Amino acid sequence: VTEDGALVAVIADEDTITGFLLAGVGDVDLRTRTNFRVVDGKTTVRHIEASFKEFTARDDVAIVLISQPIANMIRHAIANHNKVRARRGAARGGGRWRGGGGRSVGCGGRR
Length: 111
What we know:
By secondary structure, the protein is of the alpha/beta class. It is about 30% helix and about 15% strand. The chain contains 4 helices and 3 strands. The two termini are about 25 Å apart.
């Protein structure tokens, strides 16, 4: 959870997700939506893309963290993501937040 109450969403393998859950990053809301997607050998690229789109569309998610191997699987979805969103409190002079504004989301700095 960020300073303003927004969440960090994670798309990764089970071991990585477990580490983030143990660190307190996990969240389940009233509609039983989680802020994480465990990717294993049975997870399809379509499901990974759907999770990425869901997390980037949610107002309560500020950051989407994707492990590099999984980011490589959905590189096209990440490259096409260009939504720029004002963070909470931006109207009070907080500026703009560019969460996911381009290819840098979950790409390990590669372009």
